[in-house]
Amino acid sequence: MTDLLLLPGDGIGPEVTAQVRRVVSALAPDLKVEERLFGGASYDAHGTPLTDEALATAKASRAVLMGAVGGPQWAGVPRDKRPEAGLLALRAGMEVFANLRPALCFQPLADASSLKREVVEGLDFMIVRELTGGIYFGSPRFIEDLPGGGKRAVDTQVYTTAEIERVARVAFELARGRRNKVTSAEKSNVMDSGLLWRQVVTDLHARDYADVELEHILADNAAMQIVKNPKQFDVMVTDNLFGDILSDISAQLTGSLGMLPSAALGVAGKPGLYEPIHGSAPDIAGQCLANPLAAILSFEMALRWSLDRTDLADTLFAAVNKALETGARTRDLGGALTTVQMGDAVLAAL
Ligand code: NAI
Ligand code: MG
Predict the structure, then answer these.
(1) Which listed residue (52, 111, 192, 220) is catalytic?
(2) Residues 6+ apart with CB under 8 A from 173
(3) Centroid of ligand 1 to alpha carbon of 193 (angstroms)
(4) What pLDDT does residue 114 have?
(5) Measured between alpha carbons, how far is 290 from 312 in angstroms, rounded to an integer?
(6) Structure pTM?
(7) How confident is the model at residue 198 (pLDDT cuts 50, 70, 90)?
(8) Which residues make Cβ contacts (< 8 Å) with residue 206, sequence separation at least 6?
(9) Which residues of 4-29 are buried (b: 16+ CB within 10 A; e: fewer)?
(10) Which residues are marked as site: Important for catalysis (predicted)?
(11) Which residue of 35, 229, 260, 337 has the fewest CB atoms within a 10 Å radius of its CB?
């Protein structure tokens, strides 16, 4: 069985996953690693961003680590064949419904945030975003011409009790291993799906997680609070659309997009999908300028959540912090190290 399937993808994806490969060799040489084309690279070679074989291999692996997909060269490709469609198909095919996105400020980077040091120093909260439902997947969706001229666009938000409950369960379980607090964000004041969301989370809490502190917040207020006082949060659970936006806001608290990993988990025992939250960064691709830490930290999460190697995850996390402490900085962090040199710094710290 493959332990770790690497899907480097496009743009800086292959550059940052190459550094993950070096870390795997140094830290966990016993892991069986495989690699497949994905995204635009797969489209160019096979006419599809995700082949059936690659998806089958992903589902049969213990963990999947994706680099990034997309780029201007595939802008003219039909929507269902675009690199990004491959990513949605991979997430849906692996049934990874809970997206864990840490907002974590590394001590040596407390001054690199767009906010004041006292707001971000010691920051460590986790957004759990529902990933396979909601408005990005709901039907009907279409754009149509209106008889009187102009057009009409329709997207549909759908959530079932089961979808809400399983992602909320992940959040409560996580909180128990952290500071024991869950904040659930929705718009129950204006959306029926928000109303159901609040009800289901409240019921699940009463039934199975009464020991965890639960708080409800409207998603717009959550956006404001994340900027104003993010340290009040421990685990925040929210839907696909709000989670997309709130986690990008949180990303900015911590310095750089190049620092942030993510995990997408499905049911217990099935593989998780790990990816840096950044995209393929066409503006710097091929120049060895990308920060590989988000990808390396995604591997750290894979060790923790899919590969049952918490010990190695702790070691790797400490090594990244140490590399930063000794002043290792890629350009996005205000330094001059190349992608490979940042990989060197982590290996040296290991
Ligand atoms: P992006 O995340 O690729 O880049 C945004 C900015 O951040 C750029 O200036 C880039 O140079 C910088 N950046 C990103 N990652 C970095 C890293 N590791 N080190 C240093 N700097 C980094 O987002 P953008 O430009 O909106 O999208 C570019 C392409 O990536 C598009 O085709 C988009 O669809 C795709 N994309 C793919 C994602 C994925 O594969 N999960 C996620 C987001 C975008
Ligand atoms: Mg996003």
Answers:
(1) 220
(2) none
(3) 30
(4) 65
(5) 24
(6) 0.90
(7) very high
(8) none
(9) bbbbbbbbbbbbbbbbbbbbbeebbe
(10) 136, 187
(11) 229
ipTM value, please give it: 0.97
For residues 108, 128, 87 and 342, what is the CA-based torsion angle, rounded to 10 degrees? 10
Instruction: Identify the structural domains of the chain with CATH numbers, from first to last.
Output: 1-97+266-350 (3.40.718.10), 107-260 (3.40.718.10)
Distance 281 CA to ligand 1 centre (A): 4
User: Could you tell me if 295 and 261 are in contact, meaning their C-beta atoms sit under 8 angstroms apart?
Assistant: yes
> Which tens digits make up the pLDDT trace of 235-264?
999 999 999 999 988 888 876 789 989 999
The residue from 10, 234, 239, 244 that is catalytic is: 244
- 143-151, long-range: CB within 8 Å, 24+ apart, which pairs? none
Ligand closest to 66 (CA) is: 1
- Give the residue-averaged pLDDT of 47-60: 98
